[in-house]
Predict the 3D structure of the following.
Amino acid sequence: MSVIPYSRQDINQADIDAVVSVLRSDFLTQGPAVPAFEKSIVDYCGAEHAVAVNSATSALHIACLALGVGNGDIVWTTPITFVASANCALYCGATVDFVDIDPRTYNISVESLAEKLAVAEKIGKLPKVLIPVHLCGQPCDMESIYTLSQKYGFKIIEDASHAIGGKYKGEVIGNCRYSDITVFSFHPVKIITTGEGGMAMTNNAQLAKCMQLLRTHGITRDENEMTHTSDGPWYYQQIALGYNYRMTDIQAVLGLNQMQRLDEFVTKRHVIADRYNRLLADVPLIIPWQHEDSYSALHLYVIRLNLAEIGKTHRQIFEVLRALDIGVNLHYIPVYHHPYYQSLGFKTDYCLEAEQYYAEAISLPIYPGLTEAQQDLVVRALYEAIRL
Ligand SMILES: *Cc1c(COP(=O)(O)O)cnc(C)c1O
């Protein structure tokens, strides 16, 4: 029997045909597919600008740079995220700190954030940028976070790697109403895929321009941006230190085609989650709590085990599920647990709610192609692991 993964891509014949058509065309990169993909996401999300790059990690990096993050600056994020949400600040020479999570949503806690900001203001250590992460696809309390950003003067990058196709207060994630920049990931486990890929959304033309420059070596072909008039038709200038973070047309056309099924993918994830909710109603665990303000993209379906009632360890349950070929996972190890972050001085029990979450959480398989029969296998395995 093959393993049922926690997530995977959904590729159809139209996706394959679209990629093949690019392979047969003149441009494998720097052609028309990248702007077409960017436009489709702009149209869907309602933000003014989209900058496609080769990963969400790259998008987070150039988003930090565009917001001026550098040596001596402080960036805050949540500990329950993929390491990239924190690493991006370190790439820029800034320091990182973590704000504990909300015990119900597992997103950054607005109360903890408000308390930490009040202390930081007193000691002169306010963050320049905050990176809230819409964990599992459930949006953070962006309105409250935005209000705090106005009071304390920090910028916001939404890490929406899990959240394309979701809504906050009736509006599409990625419109940047409450942030400076929003970042998406198109890794195959995420909601839509380009193989590898990411996108940075913004309503600020200058930030967009800066990120466009940084994704391609800091090179411009726009004479208005050059220090002097062009030397000739071959001419370009490097005016900043950028990177090669470009998305290829092969990737972009796949993303463009996947966008047609984005809503269908998210609807399917909701059907699966609703079914889990029913099938797991009598098991000693906590099912994902959903805020009524929002519509989650449901990238992940995370349960929390009631270990006292189950009488087994988290690890035992996890190992039984894996032995039964259920590709359960744990999203995430608190970032400050990693040896690299420990070497920066973080203690293992730095955020108490994050610790509690890490001791109990398991991500069950959820993706558009998961059949009811496979889902039944997951639930049966969970019952067996817990041995009701
Ligand atoms: C996947 C992910 C990233 C990184 O995405 P890549 O496209 O793989 O670079 C960043 N943040 C979060 C929360 C993620 O889940």
